[in-house]
């Protein structure tokens, strides 16, 4: 349908000289948010672990939340603010939840954050299945 020019919406850029465009290209690193990059790191670690241990990783659900709940559960003796795991029960699959902000604040660089994510996932999988973390990933804790 044709619309007369005086009815058409005109979007201008910040200085009024042309159409508004994004500040960063969609493929540039600044386009991704910190939470999006964290989700990508977690997904990459899950894919890596799934390649090595598919029978351990497939039945587990993984989730990422921003912060841990403010009140710990009564059965938690030593609450870990960086992650939590829940065993399977009554038709509900096992779950591992990573908390983004505590992990990001403890890591000084992107590489340290990747290692922290790896260590949390491997440690929680080991806790879930009653194994040592070194059995699942020999590089755990390095």
From TrEMBL:
Coiled coil: none
Domain of life assignment: Bacteria
Protein name: Peptidase
Organism in which the protein naturally occurs: Bifidobacterium lemurum
């Amino acid at each position: 349908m044709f619309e007369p020019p005086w009815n058409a919406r005109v979007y201008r850029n910040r200085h009024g000289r042309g159409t508004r465009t994004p500040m960063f290209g969609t493929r540039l690193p600044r386009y991704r948010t910190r939470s999006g990059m964290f989700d990508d790191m977690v997904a990459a670690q899950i894919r890596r672990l799934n390649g090595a241990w598919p029978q351990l990783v497939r039945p587990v659900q993984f989730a990422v939340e921003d912060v841990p709940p403010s009140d710990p559960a009564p059965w938690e003796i030593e609450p870990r603010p960086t992650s939590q795991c829940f065993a399977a029960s009554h038709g509900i699959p096992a779950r591992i939840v990573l908390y983004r902000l505590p992990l990001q604040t403890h890591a000084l660089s992107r590489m340290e954050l990747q290692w922290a994510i790896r260590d949390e996932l491997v440690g929680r999988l080991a806790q879930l299945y009653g194994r040592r973390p070194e059995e699942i990933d020999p590089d755990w804790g390095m």
